[in-house]
Design a protein that fits this description.
The chain has three domains: 2-161, BirA Bifunctional Protein, domain 2 (2-Layer Sandwich); 174-264, no CATH class; 272-379, no CATH class. Helix content is 41%, strand content 20%. It is built from 13 helices and eleven strands. The strands form three sheets. Strands 1-3-5-4-2 form a five-stranded antiparallel β-sheet, with helices on both faces. Strands 6-7-8 form a three-stranded antiparallel β-sheet, with helices on both faces. Strand 10 (312-319) and strand 11 (324-327) form a beta hairpin. The radius of gyration is 24 Å and the shape is globular.
Amino acid sequence: MVTKIASGCSLYSALAYNHQKVKEGHAKVLLVNNMIEPPNGNFGIGICTSSFEPYLQANKRTENPIIHISLNPDPTDKLNDEKFSEIAQEYMQKLGYGNQPFIVYKHEDIDRHHLHVVSVKVDETGKMIRDNFQHRLSMRICRELEKKYGLVRANEKQKAEGYTLKKVDFNKGNIKQQIANVVRPVSASWHFQTFNEYKALLSIFNVHVSEVKGEYKGKPYTGIVYATLDEKGKVCGTPIKSSKIGKTVGKAVLEQRMAKSKILVNNKNLKERPKTIIAAAIQKCRTQDDFEKELLKSGISVLLRKNDSGRIYGVTFIDHKQKFVFNGSRLGKGFSANLFHEKFNNPEQPTGETTSTEQEKAPNQYDSTSSIDNLSGLLGIENHGENPEEEAFIRKIKRKKRYKRKL
């Protein structure tokens, strides 16, 4: 079983996230502890807030008094609601929250049913529940619960990264939910500094993302739409507006994530590890296939963008261990698209000598044949022309924009 613990200052955000799932029919309230019982049995945001508020008022000095926990059994663990409730109750008791008010939601929006628990880190006297070694304690509790309830033991990779994301499969249906299961965790936990880097990352999960610009009631706007990619990297199916998935995958939040990523990349020196690995692979490998396989050994993927004539005009690297996406140009001149084009098309020529100083412009398509296939082995994900409806939607917006200008 894998757990994730997050602390925050917004009680409303934690409750709203789960109640939205309940509203959509993808979750339900499974268990409550020391909460006010509503007459109609409906634990809405208001009644839940009333249960937590006295504890928060008792100590206003704590910066992040809200705790939001997800409990994730292995997908092969078949648990009924009674067992889920027992596990949640025992977990919270051992973590030190047995006397706290908390509410447990069972999420059923993906095949792997899991739990979310919302509580507060301040007791009724205003004393803060210490969390210095909380993650270490949580791991120990999980091992105990796995043994007691016969659950599948989480391996080291699962404990470090959580369960692996799956590629979207258009033929399986429920496309909106499949896309949501990819873009929500990716937008929240990966580091990307540009929209194109975000786009490159999603492409390995068969998800396409694009910006749609236009005017509404005389005001310009920019929206985000998501769609599925087929095995050839072409958009298929009807595009889905980001608002249908949630604010966390919309333009405003993505821009905040990109700004935060720029700071993290510099502060944590995230470039140093991939630069060393990639530089060594450039010297060692003579073909594109060998280069890709060598990088995958260290948990790094490469996506090469090519134009119709086969020229490499762009390169993006994905560091899965650091959850970091970056264009080759960010690493320096020695990692440019020109270098890789010359190296893989003129293998006898020494690395670093290029015959062209200018990259050719080309459509933003990713070379998928070898790169994407190799990614499947690393990520453990399942393999599964332009969308006419999306194109029509974009043309419609552009026509409205031109019409406004004429007026």
